[in-house]
Amino acid sequence: MQSKTRIISRLNIRFFICLLTLIPFLSYSQNSDWERSVQRKARKIGRDFYFVGLQEIAESLDTHTYYSNKVRKAILYLGEEKITVTAFNPFVMVGQNVWQLPVETKYSDGEIYVPVKFFIPIVKNLLNKSTNGGGVDELSLTINITGVKVEEKLNGTLIRVSTLQEFSKTSVSTRYSQRTFYLDIYNGKINEKSFEKNFKKGLVREIVPVQLDQMATITFKLNKDISGMDLHVTHHSNELLVSIPKGKVSPDLLKKLKNDRQKWLIDKIVIDPGHGGRDPGTIGVSGSYEKDAVLGIAKKLKKLLEKKLNVQVFMTRNNDTYVSLKERTQFANEKQAKLFISIHANWNRNSKIKGASTYFLGLAKSDEAVEIAQRENAVIKYDDDLQKTGLSEENIILATMAQNSYNKESQDLAYMIQESLAKRTGLRNRGIKQAGFYVMVGASMPNVLIETAFMSNKKEERLLKSSSFQQKVALGIYESVKEFKRKYELTIQAGK
Questions:
Q1: Percentage of the chain with pLDDT > 90?
Q2: What CATH superfamily classification does 262-494 receive?
């Protein structure tokens, strides 16, 4: 079995604390017969993870399973305890508690396959608790949010969230989309079954509490649109209060909203050519530098945007100079940019890997995303003021929550870029992904990081050095920005 260090280094950062919590409770030998048997039966599915059938785990443990092919659900019985898994679903029921795996399960020929690296620790922990007579109490959540009460007032709606502790302002974030209001509470713990929901007919028609691995989300489905309403969250020692005004919006607020809409029309864009100066970025198979290729693309993109979109365009660097990661987003904020586009080139140990991908800020969901973020973040060694600053799991979550206002827009822009790049360049579309890039933390606008092509692929490196190919990449990005600007500004003007 892999060493703990190697597991942590390759594991999706989002689940780092989860495994550290599990490991101390493992009393079974890492070389136990059943575990060795499971490892032998595992097979690689896709590029990143090894999977094993749930029935094969049951055979190795000399226990049994129950399958329902109708709903593609299976139960693994471990004494009096059980683990329930569903095909193509990352959520696992351990007793009455829900755990989220970093990757979803697979399904083939009536068998559900689970990711070995993440599923075995859960089984071992449950076996240990059962053996010691402790049940699964250690897996249960320490509840600190008990319920919600909705009160309809003459001047609006008041939502009272009962808590057992006081949450800081940075731990609470709100989102709204299509008559659905979301309250995200980092480090919030709820029991979905015992969660109290007290509300009558009014603004709220349904309340759905969801426990995620590092936060609780309470979803409020509404009977009417509250776009433009001035929501207010108040923090108390044992309550979170969310007030939603009733009726027409005040003239002053309407005026403020109109000014805000004008302010957010996309008229300024910052382009960030990655690396530069003493930081060459990735080095191609023929010795060319990432920093040179992305600067060429950035300059061509700047010309297209200025000429065809009539917007102001700023670049974090215009030549071969080094700019720290922190200074790049600070520059974008100082310019009051409406978009931040960071341009990079990719690299992989496998020289056959090719294609383009676009990232937005968030917790990495694959080994590949973790590896790329670690490589791009490695330039921190050139930043004297950041060398001792770690972008921990908690910091990534908080940073993502802080930028929740732009998260959907960032995803939309990333999707448009991917579609346009594939069309214009013929590059393989590797999809949109999320990861914790330093350069994107703190950007007060929609922001993306584009990995244009692979310097480690001989053909794509040759393309990246070509001025004509750089122009194609720039054109693909320009067209996606043009479409995003059109759709985004229509939404802003409509007040949605």
A1: 29
A2: Zn-dependent exopeptidases (3.40.630.40)
Q: What is the pLDDT of residue 286?
A: 93
3-state class (DSSP) for residue 333: helix
Least-confidence region, from 52-66, 214-228, 229-243, 360-374: 360-374
d(CA 85, CA 97): 12
Find the mean pLDDT for residues 181-185: 88
DSSP character string of 421-456: HHHHH---EEEEEEE--GGGTT-SS-EEEEEEEETT
pLDDT in tens, 23-45: 333 333 344 788 888 888 988 88
Q: How far apart are CA 203 and CA 152, in angstroms?
A: 8
Determine the Cα–Cα distance for residues 421 and 301; give it in Å rounded to an integer.
13
Which two three-digit tokens encode residue 91? 């959520």
Q: What is the DSSP code (8-state) at residue 166?
A: P
User: What six digits make up the tokens of 9?
Assistant: 């280094």
pLDDT score of 129: 65
List the end-to-end C-alpha distance of the chain, in Å, as a whole number. Answer: 52
Q: Given CA atoms 12, 18, 20, 24 in this order, what sign does their dihedral have?
A: negative
Please indicate whether residue 273 or residue 442 has the higher confidence score (pLDDT). Answer: 273
* Gyration radius (Cα) of the chain, Å: 25
Rounded distance between C-alpha atoms, residue 368 and residue 435, angstroms: 10
pLDDT, tens only, 71-105: 788 889 887 788 999 888 888 888 777 777 777 88
Q: How far apart are CA 281 and CA 261, in angstroms?
A: 38
Fold (topology level) of 4-139:
Copper Amine Oxidase; Chain A, domain 1 (3.30.457)
The packing angle between helices 33-41 and 116-131, to 10°, is 160
Which stretch of 17-31, 66-80, 370-384, 421-435 has the lowest confidence by average pLDDT? 17-31
Tokens 């594991």 locate to 11
Q: Dihedral (C-alpha) 47, 49, 52, 54: value to the nearest 10 degrees?
A: -120
Give the dihedral sign, CA 19/20/21/26. positive
| Widest CA span in the chain | 72
Q: Which CATH class is domain 145-249?
A: mainly beta
Average pLDDT, the chain: 78
Q: Quick one: pLDDT at residue 281?
A: 87
Give kind and range of the element (H or E) at residue 372: helix 367-377
DSSP state of 227: T
Asked if 51 and 45 count as a contact pair (C-beta separation under 8 A), the reply is: yes
Do the Cβ atoms of 165 and 155 come closer than 8 Å?
no
> Which residue ranges make up each domain of the chain?
4-139, 145-249, 262-494
Q: Report which of 242, 227, 214, 136 is spatially closest to residue 179, judged by C-alpha positions.
A: 227
Amino acid residing at 190: I
